[in-house]
Write a structure and sequence with these properties.
2 domains
Amino acid sequence: MAAMKKAAAHHERAAHHHEEAHKWIQSAIRHPGALHKELGVPEGKKIPAKKLAAAAKKPGTEGKRARLAETLKGLKK
């Protein structure tokens, strides 16, 4: 009986973790449009690849946003 309770608890934790891992992108994007504003690209227009690559090399928040944008760009198929 104890083994069944342990297995059920593990399954519940695993399901909760999977749900959190599944929605990591929503929590990563805190300020939509901020990268466009920092790079001087109007919202609705695509950020040029060279500009995004240059921003990804920068330190700080701008660099983090650009690296995340590159990562998300790679996920899109």
